[in-house]
Amino acid sequence: MLALGALLAGCAAPATEPSAAPTASDAPAATPTGTAAPAASADPMADWQLIQPESGRAQFRIPADWSADVTFAEQDGEPIDGVTVRRPDGQPQLTFSQAPGDVGGICAVEGSDGVSTPMLPDSELLDTAPLTLGDDSADAEAVAFGAVAVELEDGRWIFGMGITAEEWLQEPLGCPFYFIATGPAPEGEPGGIMTFATESQLSGMGDAAIWIVDSIEDARAYLETEEYATLKQILLSFEARV
Q: How far, in Å, are 47, 155, 166, 202 from residue 111 at the CA level?
């Protein structure tokens, strides 16, 4: 959920008078030698959970206090993976899925004459980052991390973030906007459609309504929150395993 609160600056503590310098007799005794305290781990995700969809075709990490619901089915012998990533309070934040299928359609407005005219709503590419899916995906489709915002018909905006084919991150953004890519699969097998994002197609419907904000300024402000940083780390930890 978008947490767009303002941060309150704390007041500085009042200065104090410096104490008198210690005399030679006041000097502390030499510190005894001993085993040094272990250094803190340089990996911010060292204690994160490793999540793997049932088919084993992918993996990613989530914080220790987050959870993931993993589902699996088959369609015509092809695996259908599903994972819902939830923050500590149980609120769904990201969804991973990989299944056979395709996408299509355009955004359009129907005129009084019954003729539909393609439309391209205002949108903004807010953030991007390169993404390497792993050693097992050398021939996979080029993908990247992206965060975007698209204006809805009522003037509000829908925020979204996820992994998508690089072509979807070219401005002006396509409509409908999709967080999709060809999924990882063994050589000679179809990868189907993969999505790992707040929602696969930006719409703000159902559970995704939590990502609707009043203005583009609200969407930009979300990028400064700790929650955004955590979600971005989760998405960038994604690896293909085929």
A: 56, 20, 33, 24
Q: Which domains are delineated in the chain?
A: 50-240 (3.40.1000)
Beta strand 67-75 with 92-99: parallel, antiparallel or unpaired? Answer: unpaired
**Distances, alpha carbon 101 to alpha carbons 41, 75, 142, 167, in Å:** 42, 10, 19, 19
Beta strands per DSSP E along the chain = 49-51, 58-62, 67-75, 78-86, 92-99, 108-110, 116-118, 123-130, 143-151, 157-165, 181-182, 193-197, 212-213, 239-240
Token pair listed for 193: 């459609």
Please state, in angstroms and rounded to a whole number, the distance separating the CA atoms of residues 24 and 236.
56
The C-alpha angle 102, 105, 108, rounded to 5 degrees, equals 170
CA distances from 51 to 3, 61, 161 (A): 25, 6, 19
Strand 108-110 to strand 92-99: parallel, antiparallel, or no bridges (unpaired)?
Answer: unpaired
169 C-beta neighbours (distance < 10 Å), count: 20
**Of 19-33, 104-118, 174-188, minimum mean pLDDT range:** 19-33
Decide: helix, strand or coil at residue 40. coil
Q: What is the pLDDT of residues 98-154, one digit of tens each?
A: 876 666 555 655 666 766 655 668 899 999 999 887 655 445 568 899 999 999 989
Coil, strand, or helix at residue 38?
Answer: coil
Closest CA to 63 of 46, 80, 75: 46
Instruction: Please choose, from the candidates 62, 93, 84, 67, the residue with its C-alpha nearest in 3D space to the C-alpha of residue 210.
Output: 93
Measured CA to CA, the distance from residue 98 to residue 80 in angstroms comes to: 6
